[in-house]
Amino acid sequence: MWPGLILCGFLTIGGYGLKLVPGLHESGFSALVFALLLGLVVGNLPGLGRMASAVQPGLHFATRWLLRGGVVLFGFSLTLQQIGALGPLILLLDMLIIGAVLLVGYQLGTRVFGLDGEVTLLTCAGSAICGAAAVLATEATIRARPAATAMAVATVVLFGSLAMLVYPLLYPFTGLDEGWFGVYIGATIHEVAQVVAAGDAVGPDALANAVIVKLVRVMLLVPFLLLAGQWWLKRRTDADSAERGALVIPWFALGFVMTVVLNSLVQLPVALHDGLLLAGQVALTMAIAALGYETRLDKLAALGIKPFALALCLFVLLAGGGLLSVSILTRL
Fold first, then answer.
1. Residue pLDDT, tens place only, 9-30
2. Which residue in 25, 78, 220, 293 is deepest, having the highest Cβ count within 10 Å?
3. How many Å apart are CA 154 and CA 132, to the nearest integer?
């Protein structure tokens, strides 16, 4: 595991180093974005990008445990008072966006693009809820084919990363203030780490709101899995498919809530509080560096165009429909 973690550590140091370079510092992009781009470049270099067997355990640890641990520790930057200030309409916004992406996306995938149900459902779940984590959780629930899972993960990583880079550039043209743009980020970008990167690139208010709204979406993964599992069983007619896969609970979302509650009720020593926040930021940066390293451009090209066409449609739906929904919400 250590070779992969050391690689993520070097990419993280490089990301923080690029953040300090004059010109790049003023770009508004965080160390998370630079670490992702470094990982993408290194992962696709001849030779260096083929160290899969040596670094894979560490990369898996980073994208799974460091990501979730970083999100949990990020809860120490928020309080219940901040969450309550957003109001119950945020839950309604997340439910509306998730429902629209799932319903529209499934019809597009199966009827317009002719994709099978597994690829379509996994891609829609990843786009609507929380990226690759939602894809893997849904895979465990419906027992999808590995090929279908690989396609779905590739598409949500690609367009989630695109959103992470594009959204901060769109911010000045949306007419939203920083806080509401954070709501827009959290309601429409795929991965938790991508939301953190985009929010951080815009500003502290955007980052705080983006993570809150995103974690609400992540928490909605649990009822989605329960409903999707039951629906999938009913539509399957094979005798071998009668058994449903194990339900995956997003414990890191629950851990995030617990740290927010703790931060709201207990005043930790300043040094300890700042240290926990720094540890969370480093963990998230290492996770997204690993995500970039594992994104192979040649494998993406070999997957075919239809899953990417579906993911592109969902990306447009999220970006356009989400902006319209948030703009309406600001007027209520």
1. 999 999 999 988 887 776 556 7
2. 293
3. 8
The reply to whether the predicted model has a pTM over 0.90 is no
Q: Which domain holds residue 157?
A: 2-329
**CA-to-CA separations, 61 to 95, 228, 287, in angstroms, rounded:** 31, 28, 8
Number of domains in the chain: 1
Radius of gyration of the chain (CA): 19
